[in-house]
Structures are given as C-alpha cells and as structure tokens.
Amino acid sequence: MRVRTLLILGIPVREAVSFWTGHPFDFELWGRAGYGGANGFSPYAPLPPAPGLSFANDFGNGANPAIGYLPFWPVLLAAIYELFAVVGMGNRFVYYFMLKQPIIIADVLLAFLLFVYVKRRNPDLAPKVLALWLFSPFTIIVSAIWGTFDSIAMLFVMVALLAQPGRARSAWEGIATLVKSIPVLFIFPLSYSRENRWVNFAIALGIPVFVTALTVYLAGWPAFGQEYNVTKTLANTLKPTGFPLSLWGTWVYLNSLNVISDSTFQSVSSWGGYLWIPAAVIASLLARRWFGFGTDRGVLQSTLVVYLTFLLVRGQVNEQYSIYLLALLLIDATLWSPKRMRLFYTVSAVVLAATITNNVLLIRFLSPVYPGALQFEAGIIQATGQLRDILLYIEGLAFSGLNIWYLAALVKERRPRGFDL
After folding, report:
1. Do residues 81 and 40 lie in contact, with contact meaning Cβ atoms separated by under 8 Å?
2. What letter would DSSP give residue 316?
3. Number of domains, the chain
4. pTM of the model as a whole
5. How many CB atoms within 10 Å of residue 82?
C-alpha cells in the first residue's frame, strides 16, 4: 500500500473517535487548562471547571487539578481555547475535537518520521513500520481517545535523531524536553557527542529552562512562595509511586493487602521515588562507555538503555510512557535486530492489556458522552473485588520482565570503550 494512502487512512481512524472520547482526569484537565489559561488562571494551581465544557470531576482523594508539565502544553491549550472562542460556536464537542488535533497530527507525523528514519537504511521495511504505528490499537487509544500528548514529544525526539549531530540535534532535543520533560532522559545520547559537547549539552538543557522561566515570568504565574506555585507543582511529579507498569507495583500491591504498613510504605516511597534520577545518569554514562554516541546505532542503543533503566526504576510508569519505548524498539527491531520484532508485538500487547485493565474496559473514556461512566466503572471494580489489582500487578510484572530481558540483551551487545568517544 502506498505511503500516502496509509497516511490518509491513519487520520480518519483517529478523528472518528476524537471528539466524543477523553480521559476524565487528563483530558478534563486539558479542557480546564485551556479555559483557565485564556482567562488568567495559573495552570499550576487548582483549576476550576470550564463552564459548559467540563465533563467530569475525577480529582478526588486529594488530587490537584493542575498541570504538571512545562509551559509548552498549557500555553498551547490556552491558544486552542482562544481559537475555539472565535470559531467553536460554544459547542463542547468542537472544543474536544480541537484539543485533540495537535496530538493526532503529531502521532501521524511521528509515524511518518519513523518511516523516513527506517527508509534511509532499509526502504523495503519502511512501509511496514508506518502501518504498524498508524494502526496500532495502543497508539490510537493513547492519542485519539485518551488524549495524552506524548506523541508530540516523541515526534521532536525523532526530528533530533534525523538531524545532524551537534547543535541542530541538541536544539531539537531541547524542544522535545520543553514539550514534555521525559525526553530529558535522552539529553546525553542526543547532545553530548562530537565537537563542542558542553555547548551542545547547554543548548539541549538551556532551551526548556530558558523558555520555561521566560514564560512563567511573562505570564505572572507564582514560581515560589505560595501554596500552589510552579516549582512545587512540577516537583510533585518527580516521585509518584503506584500502578500500573512499574516494578514498584509489587510494593503498592503488598501495601494494598496490608502486608506492608502505610508508614513503611510512605517512608520508603519518600526517597525511593527519586531513585530513577541517579539511575538515569549512571545509565547514560555506562551507555556512552558501551556504545558511544558517535553512530546512529550507538545513539539508539544508548537511548534505549537509559529509557529502560528509567522504566524499571521509576516509581510510577503510566501506560503512555510506552510510546517512547515502542518507537525506539520499532527502529531497533526493524534495522538492527529483526528477532526483536516479536518483542515489539509482545510489549504492545502487554501495555494494551494494562490500558484496558487500568481503565476498566475503556469505559471511562466515554465520559464526555456518558456522565455515569465513572460510577459504572466503580460498580464493576466493586463487583470484581481484587481482580483489577491482581491483573495490573501481573501486567506490570510482565512489562518489567520484558524490559529487563531487553536491557540485558542490549548490555550483551556492548563494546567497551573510553569516555572520550
């Protein structure tokens, strides 16, 4: 099938479910942030419902309805609301449709850039890569139904991988981190190579830091001091611990069974939730020694080692974090390790199963058109007892087991080398 045909088909598949579905926490938060940002509210403080647009309130148990991301996303959401106020005719489904457009467009473009990257080295397999991404049930759910924007961040990671090493690649890495902070994990493999390493590193780190500081200053959002401020809200995202796909799920599950006391759970989680930060730094240094950052394969292997380490040590691994892993794994399996295509399919199946389990048959995504979705979901959870937690625990172990196997396979491919490479 022709590339243009695949791309054209990939768009309506997503658009057909875009305007009437959404996650009652995340997507509701996007709607509130757009309205709030356009009306002078800080997105880093509790956001009120958007009149005539809000469809759910899944912010119980002390959850704070505030954005936990760098300013790119809330600023974009506010701009979308401003446009909606002009052309949307007050129709909330038009608003939902508009909120999904950057995500859907980025997801389709991400598929195309995966195609471009693979085509440079293996033209015969490039259309297969395009089709696998465009019609993956998981990528469709995450982008078009759930409404998370990880595809935008991964899109810029792919632009960085396609760019020339040096300042251009570092700049695109910085933009990817600005979109969503997860790509900061790739800062060493994507910027610290070739000549002017520290300059390139400074570019990659400086772009999100400078743009964030400038945006917060110009918008007048409180950065320190008040109960709700930018620094505190962002810091709270560093150490959550829980289901569904983390090794820490065992810790959470034992706590839910009262095998581990709440005091012990909180004590260990208070410091254990930060372990992923030094782990990612150590993994970056080891990856540079093992693979180097001077070749395309070395960069890809390094990003995978760092990201797999993050997934294994991070206190809470949400389903959408798999977007980055699947994209990198698809490249690796297509170009250098064909036997790992089975791993791609298996990981995709596990994260899809975890998404369906964690979101209880995807019922909650119907919240925009079915106000009783959360109550219906709660009834199913109550009727099935511990079944959901048991399934999430098993799926989390399966996901972590696959990541451990993959990381071990990559380590076996290492080529010891000096740090000066």
Report:
1. no
2. B
3. 1
4. 0.95
5. 12
Does residue 224 lie in a domain region?
A: yes
Q: How far is CA 415 from CA 254, 287, 411, in A?
A: 40, 10, 9
Two tokens at 381? 């959870």
Whether 41 is in a domain gets the answer: yes
Residue 420 lies in a domain: no
Task: Give dist(CA 256, CA 389) in Å, integer.
Answer: 9
Classify residue 21 as left (phi > 0), alpha (psi -120 to 50) or beta.
beta
Q: d(Cα 156, Cα 75) in Å, to the nearest integer?
A: 18
Q: What is the pLDDT of residues 358-374, one digit of tens each?
A: 999 999 999 999 999 99
> In sequence order, what DSSP letters do the residues of 237-261 get, joined into one string?
TS---BSSSSTTHHHHHHHHTTSS-
Amino acid identity, position 36: G
Report the run of H or E that residue 87 belongs to, with start and end. helix 72-87
Helices 296-313 and 276-290 sit at what angle, rounded to 10 degrees? 160
Burial of 276 (0-12, 13-18, 19+ CB in 10 A): buried
Q: What does the pLDDT look like over 166-211, one tens digit per residue?
A: 999 999 999 999 999 999 999 999 998 767 899 999 999 999 999 9
Cis peptide before 244 (omega within 30 of 0): yes
Whether 1 maps to a domain, the answer reads no
Task: Identify which of 333, 351, 401, 332 has the alpha carbon closest to the alpha carbon of residue 136.
Answer: 351
Q: Name the residue range of residue 203's domain.
A: 19-412
